[in-house]
Every structure is written in C-alpha cells, then in structure tokens.
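Deliverable D4.2, example record:
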Amino acid sequence: MDASAAPATAQRVPPYQPYPVTVDEYVRFRREGFLVVKGLVSRAEVEELNAHTDAIMNGDVHVPGLPAPDLALPLAERHKAWERLHMAHRVLEVHERFLLHPRIIDVLEALIGPDVLALQTMLFFKQPGQAGQGYHQDAYYIPTQPDTLCGAWLALDPATEENGCLWFTVGSQHEPIYPDDQVDHPGDRLLDDIGTICNASHPDTSKNTLAKIAAKYPGAEVKVEAEPGDVVFFGGHILHRSHANRANYSRRAFVSHYCNARSRVPWNHGQPYAGDSANYLHILARGTTHLAYAQPKFGTLCAANAPELYGQRIFDDQPHSMMGDDNGFMITEPHGDPDHDD
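Output generated by the structure prediction step:
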C-alpha cells in the first residue's frame, strides 16, 4: 500500500514529546551492540500494560486465537499457563499501540532508519521459577535483507540479576549470523569457513554451541538491569541471553522487533505468506518505502496511516544521511554539501 492512499489527517498532532537521540547514544549502540534509554516510556503507560498483563493471566482478557482459560481453576493455576505471548499486536489494540509507540520509533529512526518497519511483538510474563533463554542472535530467527533487524525491550518490572535480566556479549554484534544445519534457519552461509551451530537459545551451554562463539569474548558479557519504562535497543547479531527467574517477583517485559522499511522480510512468525517476502503483513512505523506494507489494524498513528506526522521527513530530491549536529544530536543532512561529503 502506498502512503499517499492514507486518509487526510491534517488536524492530527504528535501525542508524545519526541525523543532526540544523541551522537553519544548512536556511537554506544554501534560500539556495544545495545543501547539502554532510561525512562523512555512513562510509568503510567507501564502500569497500563501491567494491568493488561494481569488481566490476561487472570482470564479477564481473552486473546483471540488462543483457548479461553478455565475460570474454574484457581488463580495461581491460571497464571502458570503464561510464559510469553507472541504477535498479539494483530489481535489486541494495546499491543499494537506499544509496538508503534512514537518515542520507541524515534530511537529506531536514528539507529536503523529513517524508514522503520514494525515486525513482531512478544509479551514476556517471566514469573518466579520460569526459565530464561540461552545464547541466541535475533536475526537467526527473523531474517531481513539487507540485514537491519533491531529489538526494543521495554521493562515492565524491575529487571535484576535475581529475576533474570538480559545479558549481552559486547563485541559479538560484529559476528555473522551462524547457520544451523539441524533446522531450517537462515545464516551467513556465503562465508567460507563459518561453520554451523546447534541448539540456539538452549540455556545449557554444553548443548548450545553459540557458547563457543561467546567464549571468544572473555569478560565481555554484561548484565543489563533496568527499571520499568527503560527500553533496551539491540541489533540482530549480538549474542544475548537471560537466566531463570530465581526471585519471588516477576520480570515482565514487552519486546518488539523492527527493521529498516527498505529491507525485504521473508518472515511471518512461521505463518505462510505470498511471494518472496511478507513486508505487506508488517506495519510501516516511520518514513516511507518502495516496498509493500500493512496498515495498523486498530488505527494507531504511524507512517502507514498518518504520513503527515510520521512519513517522509525529507521533502526535496537530494539524498540525505544521518549526521551529528553541533549540539550532539543526530539529524538528517543533504548530500552535496561540502561540509558533509568528505
């Protein structure tokens, strides 16, 4: 669908204060493979999403496509059924709204944009005693061509070492995506000596052979503890994991994935799609693209349905690049200017 087909909405105004990404944040994301933006999402919004999460576990909210919970079961038993919920932005308005949260997209616009396609949502419940996830690379699961995948991990509870926070292996963002001959997953198979891995995401490092890749970076694994409203952005190549929740409190998180909207995406969460890519099933969050894209089902404002707010930011015919300005912020600058074409 072309953005020009969207209805005229000239009366709309941005619903949030934009988040300006600094040059330092841009550099840290490239240097370390991840970036933590503190307090990016308000506590009130986090509380809304937590109340929604509780309602799902209690059985007060039914997720379309999933069996209705047995309300005769005790509350504790109903809660045990929930570990994570995938792709609910296609059936629940609140998930679509957080997937397209403008301040999250502001950061992505600077890191992987300016054109951003919204692909996936996951709601992690991670209640006491629930398992973590072993070493993995997100682009192993979600291929984009060119490779521009980026995750955004929104903390809904305090994420601590005790309850299973994220751990990143700094430096591994420069590793290729390792292929797996045992399952049908893409990888960088054009590299002559890359080798293959097995059991990605398995928490046992004796079985998950990505542990051997992580071992190339001794002392480089760092824990990322976060407060509710903090968002952790990380590229698709960096090795990361989390451990089991050993605390008596939950570690809920809302996680979304995105790519540059000019990348082809042969992925639809394991579901069929037509042609050589599923871009037409994913939502254009920011900017514009020559590829197909979907409209948000619940009308959340984004580039797909409000191009005057979130569409093409550059209105001349010159090519532009993201550059740092004199105040330390990332901005778009036209080519053809001698100051920017060295």
